[in-house]
């Protein structure tokens, strides 16, 4: 197997966002990285500085573009934009989301909670997978024999990993292994995914209430 047959695509979640109101910002514009989020982006850029990154692409949302910027700068390349990497659509966008004082306290919203397997409150999981796999394939093709970074959002990243690992797409959101500024790394031989790894280069920067929810670092390989 030659080096040109191996391509790695790192699917990265953006860093922490400045959101003092605690709303579900979803696809809304003008939600930018916090100071901590910028430190997370810089940390991952340092982590990847010695890697063979030849392509950086991000969701069009501000927080993803800002996360990608220091990684691209470290390699002297531009940040490309791919609409397919965008956050999942959600009916509760722009609202606080809680049982006592958020969107769930309004009976008119309960109809959106009827089917967690689809899910009924937003973009179907399988539609997220289709667009994300298309974005990964495009990044793979752009970085053949090298490495690419795609900056996206937690839910699309997680369901894409579940699909690639032949797991069900519906899940408990509390059990996602996809922390802020994490890397879910897909290794391709040619066009085939042969392993998926997960790492958290900015783990020590995560807020304390998040670090207890993370699983161990993993790397899953696939047989022929």
Automatic annotation (TrEMBL):
<dbReference type="InterPro" id="IPR050275">
    <property type="entry name" value="PGM_Phosphatase"/>
</dbReference>
<dbReference type="InterPro" id="IPR029033">
    <property type="entry name" value="His_PPase_superfam"/>
</dbReference>
<protein>
    <submittedName>
        <fullName>Broad specificity phosphatase PhoE</fullName>
    </submittedName>
</protein>
<dbReference type="Pfam" id="PF00300">
    <property type="entry name" value="His_Phos_1"/>
</dbReference>
<dbReference type="GO" id="GO:0005737">
    <property type="term" value="C:cytoplasm"/>
</dbReference>
<dbReference type="InterPro" id="IPR013078">
    <property type="entry name" value="His_Pase_superF_clade-1"/>
</dbReference>
<dbReference type="GO" id="GO:0016791">
    <property type="term" value="F:phosphatase activity"/>
</dbReference>
